[in-house]
From TrEMBL:
<keyword id="KW-1133">Transmembrane helix</keyword>
<feature type="transmembrane region" description="Helical">
    <location>
        <begin position="175"/>
        <end position="197"/>
    </location>
</feature>
<dbReference type="GO" id="GO:0005886">
    <property type="term" value="C:plasma membrane"/>
</dbReference>
<dbReference type="Pfam" id="PF07681">
    <property type="entry name" value="DoxX"/>
</dbReference>
<feature type="transmembrane region" description="Helical">
    <location>
        <begin position="20"/>
        <end position="43"/>
    </location>
</feature>
<feature type="transmembrane region" description="Helical">
    <location>
        <begin position="63"/>
        <end position="89"/>
    </location>
</feature>
<protein>
    <recommendedName>
        <fullName>DoxX family protein</fullName>
    </recommendedName>
</protein>
<dbReference type="InterPro" id="IPR051907">
    <property type="entry name" value="DoxX-like_oxidoreductase"/>
</dbReference>
<dbReference type="InterPro" id="IPR032808">
    <property type="entry name" value="DoxX"/>
</dbReference>
<comment type="similarity">
    <text>Belongs to the DoxX family.</text>
</comment>
<feature type="transmembrane region" description="Helical">
    <location>
        <begin position="96"/>
        <end position="114"/>
    </location>
</feature>
<keyword id="KW-1003">Cell membrane</keyword>
<keyword id="KW-0812">Transmembrane</keyword>
<keyword id="KW-0472">Membrane</keyword>
Length: 206
C-alpha cells in the first residue's frame, strides 16, 4: 500500500511537471532556429556576393559540380538560404522552409561533401576516418614543422590549432537533422509567428 501511494505521488508530480513544461516546449524549436539562422544567412550572402563565381562552380564539369542549369540552381540555392534564414528567424512557415532547406542540404551532401567521407575537420584518430583523413596526418605534421622552423608558431596558433579541412558531410548532416526536427516541432509555442498566426486563425474559426 505504501509503495502504491509512493508510485501514485511520483506519477502526479511527473504529470504536474509535464503540464508546466508544456508551455516551454517552444524553446527547443527556438534554439534550433537561432542556431541555423546565421549558418544559412552566411551561406546565402556569400553566394549572392560572388554570384557569378557560384554559377560557374555549379556548372563547370572540370573543377565544379557539373550541375544542369547552373544559373537556375545557383539562384534557387541562394534564394532558399537567404529566405530560409529570414523565415527561421521569424518562425514563419517553419515547416515549409525546413523542407526546402533539407533539399538544399541533400544536394550539398551528395554533390560536394560525400566524396570526402564523414569528417568536416580531418582527425585521423576520430571514428569514420577514411584514407583521405588518415593521409592528412603526415601533411599536417609537415606543415607544423615548416611553421615552427620558419614562422612565429606561438603567434600563428594563438587563436587556435591548425587543422586540415576535410569538408565531409558531418556539418551538413547535423543541419539536416536539425531541419528534420523543425518539421516535427514547427516554429515553437509562443516564440514564432507561426504559433500566433495559428492562434488567430483558430480564434476566427471558433
Amino acid at each position: 500500500m505504501i509503495m502504491k501511494n509512493i508510485i501514485y505521488s511520483l506519477t502526479q508530480h511527473y504529470q504536474n511537471m509535464c503540464t508546466v513544461l508544456k508551455h516551454a516546449d517552444g524553446i527547443a524549436a527556438l534554439v534550433l532556429r537561432c542556431y541555423l539562422v546565421p549558418i544559412f544567412w552566411m551561406a546565402g550572402t556569400n553566394k549572392l556576393m560572388h554570384f557569378q563565381d557560384t554559377v560557374e562552380w555549379f556548372g563547370n564539369s572540370d573543377w565544379g559540380l557539373a550541375l544542369p542549369f547552373p544559373y537556375l540552381m545557383a539562384t534557387l540555392a541562394t534564394s532558399t538560404e537567404l529566405a530560409g534564414a529570414i523565415l527561421l528567424a521569424l518562425g514563419l512557415f517553419t515547416r515549409l522552409i525546413s523542407i526546402l532547406l533539407i533539399i538544399t542540404m541533400l544536394v550539398a551532401i551528395f554533390t560536394v561533401h560525400l566524396p570526402n567521407g564523414w569528417q568536416a575537420i580531418a582527425d585521423p584518430n576520430a571514428p569514420f576516418a577514411n584514407a583521405q583523413v588518415l593521409a592528412s596526418a603526415e601533411k599536417l605534421e609537415k606543415a607544423r614543422e615548416i611553421l615552427e622552423n620558419y614562422g612565429n608558431y606561438d603567434w600563428l596558433t594563438s587563436s587556435g590549432s591548425f587543422v586540415i579541412l576535410n569538408n565531409g558531410i558531418e556539418f551538413a548532416m547535423t543541419y539536416l537533422i536539425m531541419l528534420i526536427a523543425l518539421i516535427v516541432l514547427g516554429g515553437g509555442r509562443y516564440c514564432s509567428v507561426d504559433f500566433w498566426l495559428k492562434q488567430k486563425v483558430l480564434k476566427h474559426l471558433f
